[in-house]
Amino acid sequence: MRLENYVALITGGASGIGEATARLFVERGAKVVIADLDEERGRKIESELAPNAVFCKVDVSKSEQVEKMFRMTEEKFGVLDVLFNNAAYSLSKTLWDTTEEDWDQVMTVNLKGYFLCAKYALPLLKKSSHGAIVCTGSELGIVGCVESLAYNTSKGGIIQFAKSLALELAPFGIRVNAVCPSGTETPAFVKDMSRSGDYEGECARLIASYPLHRLGQPIDIAKAVAFLASEEASFITGTHLMVDGGYTAQ
Ligand SMILES: NC(=O)c1ccc[n+]([C@@H]2O[C@H](COP(=O)([O-])OP(=O)(O)OC[C@H]3O[C@@H](n4cnc5c(N)ncnc54)[C@H](O)[C@@H]3O)[C@@H](O)[C@H]2O)c1
Prior knowledge:
Layout: E1 7-11, H1 16-27, E2 31-36, H2 39-49, E3 53-57, H3 63-77, E4 82-85, H4 100-125, E5 132-136, H5 149-169, E6 175-181, H6 187-193, H7 199-208, H8 218-229, E7 240-243
Parallel strand pairs: 1-2, 1-4, 2-3, 4-5, 5-6, 6-7
Helix pairs in contact: 1-8, 3-4, 4-5
The protein binds nicotinamide-adenine-dinucleotide.
Nicotinamide-adenine-dinucleotide is lined by residues 11-12, 14-18, 36-38, 58-61, 86-90, 109, 113, 136, 138, 181, 183-184, 186-189.
């Protein structure tokens, strides 16, 4: 499944799932914009993927920065084929511990950020003959779990965002889908699972709950994103693809 001459913008592209997706897209022939807050990591990946990647420092929740990023993308490439809406703010807190600021921060990055990127990407995606948006949801947008109320709520919202936007953009031939990973070994995952001080034990408990008996790797999700972004998925829109080792099939 080649992505020859595709131009893709990947938010959260400097780490974890976004980074793996940027590397896979370039391997398959695409040019990528790595959009991330983390300049040091982003520049490192940009230089490793040169000349097929450009880094853009952005906070996806700030409209003026997002607008500027798509202006830069237009100047550099003239078109956008794929927006991978992926950057997110992860928070593990109960209702009682979640402050109003926490709630706003999660919703601002995870929902408003996806909205702003889709809005400002649209004029460029319309110039493509095969425009596609892929949004990272989560298994936690489908099933509930404790101590993660704001994050899970935002991920449920992302699945609905993808469905409704798919209907709105279908007349332009732009497809919109979501990928929903389960526990995937990325820096964010390792940090979260290390909170109890027993990373190995936490992982073992999680793995025991997955029918395929392993954790996800960033490349597992990247391959699903590449499929949904490609012509192979040209009749697929408004859906969410679980990449969860069978967890939500139970
Ligand atoms: N890792 C998992 O187990 C898992 C499971 C389900 C869903 N997800 C989702 O996958 C996506 C990627 O997560 P990951 O695990 O690769 O995380 P990660 O922390 O490894 O990477 C996230 C990247 O997003 C960037 N970022 C954060 N806020 C940003 C902002 N406001 N503007 C621009 N960039 C920003 C960070 O700098 C970082 O480089 C997220 O949407 C996350 O919710 C992850």
